[in-house]
């Protein structure tokens, strides 16, 4: 255990780059092409998630120990809903479990995350649910992968890391950032007739900002004449997003839109645009479609969002645990990537309610 302790704390003092370059990650569709046997497994798993629960088929001798270390201290309700849907599905499945959850600020409370991760290892944890975003997560994850326990579920990432080869986590689970960002990119390309200037507000330097932000910029550049004139890192913080938006408006008086990479960023942008009487004149978006974004869409403060069918994420984790307990771990795919729905301002109220019922079927 002392070696693990040393590695973890050295990791949090070093800077390990995990920029989202194509040579570092397999996109979800690329991974399926490389591993065609995963296609059937993935399809069967999706059917489990979309259908009613089927009880655990074995008798447990003791509860499974599960630890969640989540960057959930933010306005977005994605992480809270993930936890709620995960637990409610486990209960429906009849799985006995003990869950400890630790919520931190996204990507910046690294030392706090390290403490919780160490507790998980010391506590003989069966399943550890974590994420990969900040530049300093990789070495710890690699150490976990070298052991049999705990089994690792990486949430909010759906692109297997190439250098981990056949030694991948038990499950990657989430909603593909590149897919969602391309949906938003196509909206902006159409709305602007493919011309004009725009800016991008990123989160922290790491995986999510790369996949949602840099991939967005690359796609827009390849598909239109739109020009990215500025970008800022905001640490997924609303107040920092507001300051960055004010700076953008000071430096550029002809922006067509400001692309926001998260809920907290989007709400910061929309608040400044409202204060400056620029709502609707400069377009902006949400990312994820949680409750606060849907409220902003209803008030015409956001122009569009990509809405995750959120609870499928938690359900997938619960079904993976059940299958594993039944000795059917081979029926758990390496990657589960959930569906999106496009929500634009002006959407009918009954359509919103239908989407909420589908997306939040456990966490509502």
User: What's the main sheet like?
Assistant: 6 strands, parallel
**Average pLDDT across residues?**
89
Helix content: 40-55%
CATH-assigned fold name of the largest domain: Rossmann fold
Model description:
By secondary structure, the chain is α/β, with parallel strands linked by helices. It folds into 2 domains: 2-175 and 310-338, 3-Layer(aba) Sandwich (Rossmann fold), CATH 3.40.50.2300; 178-308, Response regulator (Rossmann fold, 3-Layer(aba) Sandwich). 44% of the residues lie in helices and 17% in strands. The chain contains 13 helices and 12 strands. The protein has helices at residues 2-11, 28-34, 37-50, 78-93, 110-122, 138-145, 177-191, 207-223, 238-251, 263-275, 291-298, 311-325, 349-359; strands at residues 64-70, 97-103, 127-131, 151-155, 171-174, 197-202, 227-233, 255-260, 283-284, 304-308, 335-337, 340-344. Strands 2-1-3-4-5-11 form a 6-stranded parallel β-sheet, sandwiched between helices. Helix 9 (238-251) crosses helix 10. The longest helix has 17 residues, at 207-223. 46% of the residues are buried.
Q: Topology, pairings included?
A:
Blueprint lengths: L1 H10 L16 H7 L2 H14 L13 E7 L7 H16 L3 E7 L6 H13 L4 E5 L6 H8 L5 E5 L15 E4 L2 H15 L5 E6 L4 H17 L3 E7 L4 H14 L3 E6 L2 H13 L7 E2 L6 H8 L5 E5 L2 H15 L9 E3 L2 E5 L4 H11 L5
Parallel strand pairs: 1-2, 1-3, 3-4, 4-5, 5-11, 6-7, 6-8, 8-9
Antiparallel strand pairs: 10-12
């Amino acid at each position: 255990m002392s070696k693990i302790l040393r590695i973890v704390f050295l990791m949090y003092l070093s800077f390990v780059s995990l920029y989202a370059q194509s040579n570092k990650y397999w996109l979800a569709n690329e991974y399926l092409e490389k591993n065609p046997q995963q296609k059937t497994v993935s399809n069967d798993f999706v059917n489990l998630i979309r259908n009613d629960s089927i009880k655990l088929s074995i008798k447990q001798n003791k509860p499974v120990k599960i630890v969640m270390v989540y960057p959930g201290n933010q306005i977005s309700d994605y992480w809270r809903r993930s936890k709620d849907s995960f637990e409610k599905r486990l209960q429906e499945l009849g799985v006995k479990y003990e869950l400890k959850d630790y919520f931190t600020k996204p990507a910046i409370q690294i030392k706090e995350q390290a403490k919780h991760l160490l507790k998980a290892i010391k506590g003989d944890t069966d399943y550890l649910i974590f994420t990969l975003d900040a530049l300093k997560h990789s070495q710890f994850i690699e150490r976990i992968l070298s052991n049999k326990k705990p089994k690792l579920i990486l949430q909010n990432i759906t692109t297997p890391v190439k250098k981990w080869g056949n030694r991948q986590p038990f499950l990657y689970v989430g909603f593909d950032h590149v897919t969602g960002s391309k949906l938003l990119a196509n909206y902006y390309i159409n709305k602007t007739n493919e011309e004009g200037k725009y800016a991008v507000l990123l989160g922290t330097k790491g995986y999510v900002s790369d996949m949602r932000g840099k991939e967005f910029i690359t796609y827009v550049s390849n598909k239109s004449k739109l020009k990215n004139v500025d970008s800022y890192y905001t640490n997924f913080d609303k107040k920092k997003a507001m300051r960055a938006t004010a700076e953008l408006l000071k430096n550029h008086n002809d922006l067509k839109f400001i692309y926001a990479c998260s809920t907290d960023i989007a709400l910061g942008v929309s608040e400044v645009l409202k204060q400056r009487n620029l709502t609707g004149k400069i377009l902006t978006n949400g990312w994820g479609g949680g409750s606060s974004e849907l409220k902003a869409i209803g008030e015409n403060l956001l122009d569009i969002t990509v809405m995750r069918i959120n609870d499928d994420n938690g359900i997938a984790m619960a079904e993976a645990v059940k299958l594993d307990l039944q000795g059917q771990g081979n029926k758990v795919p390496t990657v589960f990537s959930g569906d999106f729905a496009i929500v634009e301002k002006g959407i009918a109220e009954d359509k919103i309610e239908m989407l909420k019922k589908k997306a939040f079927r456990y966490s509502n």
